[in-house]
Amino acid sequence: MGWIYSWCDPPAMGWAAASGTLDSGALALCALIYFWQFPHFNSLSFNVRADYCRAGYHMMSVTDIPLNSRVSLRNTAALIPLCIAILSLASHTAPSRSTV
Length: 100
Prior knowledge:
100 residues; mainly alpha; 5 helices; 81% helix; elongated
């Protein structure tokens, strides 16, 4: 369960520092970072898969290209409804900004 902290702690701490609470906006931010990173990293690793192969790394982009594509597509598809939900949450949960 410790792996989840690397994805949720920094954005959740930033949200809590800005708003003073941990609410649905913090959860949405954590989910956005979680689902974004797989298509991002998989596409980058796919582009340099020959280098990974020569170096002896057993990356998904080298060992199982169809799985690499499915993981990227699945997480990209999850981003679409998540971003729509974030837009609907934005006016309700955004941290308030004080004006001087």
